Automatic annotation (TrEMBL):
The chain crosses the membrane at residues 15-32, 44-60, 66-86, 98-117, 168-186, 240-258, 270-293, 299-321, 328-351, 363-381. Pfam families: DUF819 (PF05684). PANTHER family: DUF819 DOMAIN-CONTAINING PROTEIN, PROTEIN, PUTATIVE (DUF819)-RELATED. Keywords: Membrane, Transmembrane, Transmembrane helix. InterPro entries: DUF819. This is Membrane protein. The keyword Transmembrane helix applies.
Amino acid sequence: MTPLGATSLVPADNTFALLAVFFGITAIGALLEKTRFGRRVSGVMLVIAIAIALAHFRIIPAAAPVYGAIWTYLVPLAIALFLLRADLVSIVVEGGRTLVAFLFGAVGVAAGAWLGAQLLDLGPFEAQYAAVFSATYVGGSLNFAAVAEAIGFRDPSALAAGVAIDNVVGLGYLLMVGAAASWPLFSRHFAWRAHRLTDVGDQADAVERVPTVIDLSLALGLAALACAAGTAIADALGQPAYAILYITLLMVAIATLGRRWLRSIAGPELAATLFMYLFFALLGAGADIGAMLGAAPALFAYVLIIFAVHVVFILVGARLCRLNHAEIVIASSACIGGPPIAIAFAVLFGWRRLAVPAVATGVLGYVLGNFVGIGLFEALVR
C-alpha cells in the first residue's frame, strides 16, 4: 500500500487532477453498476475497489488536501440534500403501519450494535464501528459518512473494511429477506390484512421530472444554508463536532414547513449521490488492504449480531401490532438497504400499496440514523 507522503503519478497537491480522477472513478463505478455484475457488487464497492487499485500502484496518493475538503464540505451537503425529502407530515401519514415495523427494526439495530460491542472485541475502533454501522442500518450510506465525520472516525483502512463488510453481509441479508417474502410459513404467520397489498396508490405511477439548473441551484443553496446555520449553532453551543445533528434538524424543519414547494424541486438526490461516490473514492485511496483483511472476521460476526437482533425486534413488534409479512419485508429492507431496495421489493412482489411507505420509512431512516449512531457512540465511550 502507498505510504502517506510517498510519490504518486498524480501529486497530492494537484487538486484539479485528483478531482478529475475521482470524477472518472465515479463515472466508471456508476456505469459498471448497470451491468449484471455491477448490480450484484454495487457501485460503491466498485468505486472503492478502483480507488484502492489506483492508490496501490501509486497513481493517486493515499492522502491529499482535497480529501479533507470532501470530508468537511461535501459529506454534510450530501446528507442535507437527501433530507430535502424528509417531510415529517408525509412520513407519518404515508408511512402508516410500515412505519411502525420500521421503528421496531431501528430499535433492533441499535440494540444489536450495542450487544455486539459487548460480546466482541472490535479493537481500538469499537465505539466508532458501533456508531457507523447502527447509523447506516437505520439510515443509509450517507449516515455512515456523516457519523464518521462527526465522531472523528477518519481511518481509511478501518472505514473501507466496514464498507466492504456492510456490502457483502448486507447483500446476503437482503437476498434472504427477498426469499423470505415468498415463504408460505412466513406469510401464513403474518397474514393480517395482506389481501390489500396489491391496491394501487395514487402516487404509484408518478414520474420524476428531469432536474434543471434552477432545481439544483435551489437544492444546493438550501443545503448550504442549513449546513452554515447548523455549524454556527453547534459552535455556539460548544459542540462543533456534532454539527451534523443540527444540520439534520434544520433540514427536517425546512422539508416539513416547505413540503408543498419543495416537492417541485427535482434531482437533489442526484447531487447527493455524486458527493457520496467521491467520499467512497477517497476511502479506497487511503485504505490499507492488510488492515482491511485483518478487521474482516470480527466485523463479519458483529454485523451478523446486528441483523439477528434486528430480526427479533421487528418480528416481535409485528406480532404485537398485527403487521403482515409484506410490511415486515418492506420495513426491514428500508432499514438495512434504504428506500431503493424497499421500493424494488414492493414492485417485485406486486405490493404497489407499499411503494410510498417504502420511501417514507427510508427517508425517516436518513433523519434518525445520525442521532442513533452518535448516541450509541457517546454511550460506549463513557
